[in-house]
Each structure stands twice: as structure tokens, then as C-alpha cells.
Design goal:
Largest sheet: 11 strands, antiparallel
Strand content: 15-25%
CATH superfamily: Cyclophilin-like
Helix content: 25-40%
Structural class: alpha+beta
Number of helices: 6
CATH class: Mainly Beta
Radius of gyration: 20 Å
Oligomer: single chain
Shape: globular
């Protein structure tokens, strides 16, 4: 009987080690973060089969990568927002950071108040407000990344002007594959829409938020899958000029007018 119990225990330990190795391998694989992953249906209607197929290929890659890794649980901070009491957030390890930073704090998270993010770019200043009551963990992460100068001297690597209308930023590697080395849960998705002036998190599947975000310069039809956490208060004219210049390739690619975030800072907005 003792031998049988020992064999079962060894088998259990082997299974746990194998599961841990598989999870670690999945986390190391870089994911291509993309806004287009789940808007294939919109693209089919608005811009034709060719562009839709391109969106689908990117989306498949992102969704498969996301499915192979653990998805963070919903934040406890969101449930604390109604009372205004400090909350907690979970940030889960995910791959290698494009630029080394500490994880955001997980306790005592602000669940009330508005914080302003100011992006000084080479083509003009852009600013947006973040509501900590609606997106406490996203706001907390953006404030932390700004504190560590994570976004400074980084490009906005992608401009889309067909089907959806966004400028995507937040990847120091500049190719759409980078992140901060952690991920966190979605927030504020119930009834989410993406009108002009929205700032939202890019992702590669549920619960895969990292550092990449997009700025909506024209009303965009997107499913409620991308955490909307900001409202642009300054710089829509800057985005309009960048969008007017187009991208390479046309419709979805690198902005022809290079956009570099020279400095990104956040501050509490006076009540």
C-alpha cells in the first residue's frame, strides 16, 4: 500500500512539473498585440476580402497565443470603486519585457478620481483623462509605466484607416510584439463603444492587456473587447494630421508621418 501511494505522489509531482514547464514556455512566446483581432466581420463589410484576410491572419496569431496562457481574473479594485475605497489588482507575468520595469503596485489602488496622461510627441502634444473609478487597474498600470518612463522615446507603430480608425502606441520595440512583461484583466467592457477621442487597451485576447494602447481619431465600430480607459482632451488635431498622411501599406501599417512619444507623464486632475 505504501509503495502505491508513493507512486501516485511521484506521478502527481511529474504532472505538476510538466504543467509548469508548458505554462512557462507559453509565457515566453511573444504575442503580436493587435486591435484588429476581433473586427474581421466589420472589415468584411467595410473594406473587402483582401484587408479582412490580413486582419484575420493577425487575429489568429494573437488569439492562439492568448489561449495558451493563463488569463488574469477580474480585478478586485473594480468592485471597490463604488465605495471609493482602495482596491487590489492582479498583474501576471507574461513574457520578456520590451523595457524593464517593476510591476505596478497591487494594493491600495485608487478607485476614484481622474488622472491626466500627457504625451509630448514629435508632432504635437496629446492629452487624455483616465477615470480610476471605471478602470482602476488599467489607470494604475499606466501611471506605473509612466513613472518608470516606459513610454519615453517610443514610436506609435501602427495607423489604421479602413474599418477602424486608430493610432496604436505603447510598444518600445516598435513592431507591435512588445509589452511590459506582465498582463492584467479587462475592465469597463459592458456596453463599451469607441467613438472619436477614445483611448483603449490593445490586446491579443481576453485578459491580455499590457502596455499597448490605441487612440481613436474617428468613430470606430469595434466589439466591446478592448478596455476603454481614457478620453482625449487635447491633440485630436494632431491625430487628424497623422491620419491624413496615411500609412505604409495604405489602410493599415506604419504611419507615414513618424510619431514618437518623447515624454509620457501622468498626474492627478484637480477636482
Amino acid at each position: 500500500m505504501a509503495g502505491s501511494k508513493r507512486e501516485k505522489e511521484l506521478a502527481r509531482q511529474r504532472a505538476e512539473r510538466q504543467a509548469a514547464r508548458r505554462a512557462a514556455a507559453a509565457a515566453r512566446r511573444k504575442q503580436r498585440t493587435t486591435v484588429v483581432a476581433s473586427v474581421v466581420a466589420v472589415l468584411l463589410v467595410t473594406v473587402g476580402i483582401a484587408i479582412a484576410a490580413a486582419g484575420l491572419s493577425r487575429g489568429d496569431k494573437g488569439v492562439k497565443a492568448a489561449a495558451s496562457a493563463a488569463t488574469p481574473k477580474a480585478s478586485a479594485a473594480a468592485s471597490s470603486a463604488a465605495s471609493g475605497k482602495p482596491g487590489t489588482c492582479t498583474y501576471t507575468d507574461a513574457g520578456t519585457a520590451s523595457r524593464k520595469v517593476d510591476k505596478p503596485p497591487t494594493e491600495g489602488i485608487e478607485t476614484k478620481g481622474v488622472f491626466t496622461a500627457t504625451l509630448q510627441t514629435n508632432v504635437g502634444q496629446i492629452a487624455f483623462d483616465m477615470d480610476a473609478a471605471k478602470t482602476p487597474c488599467t489607470t494604475n498600470s499606466m501611471r506605473s509605466l509612466a513613472h518608470f518612463s516606459y513610454f519615453d522615446k517610443t514610436p506609435c507603430h501602427r495607423l489604421t484607416s479602413q474599418g477602424i480608425f486608430v493610432l496604436q502606441c505603447g510598444d518600445p520595440s516598435g513592431d507591435g510584439t512588445g509589452g511590459p512583461g506582465y498582463r492584467f484583466a479587462d475592465e469597463n467592457l459592458t456596453g463599451a463603444t469607441y467613438p472619436r477621442g477614445t483611448v483603449a487597451m490593445a490586446n491579443s485576447g481576453p485578459g491580455t492587456n499590457g502596455s499597448q494602447f490605441f487612440l481613436v481619431y474617428k468613430d470606430s465600430q469595434l466589439p466591446p473587447d478592448y478596455t476603454p480607459f481614457g478620453t482625449i482632451t487635447q491633440g485630436l488635431d494632431v491625430l487628424d494630421k497623422v491620419a491624413k498622411a496615411g500609412s505604409t501599406p495604405p489602410g493599415d501599417g506604419k504611419p507615414k508621418t513618424a510619431v514618437t512619444i518623447e515624454r509620457f507623464r501622468t498626474a492627478a486632475k484637480p477636482a
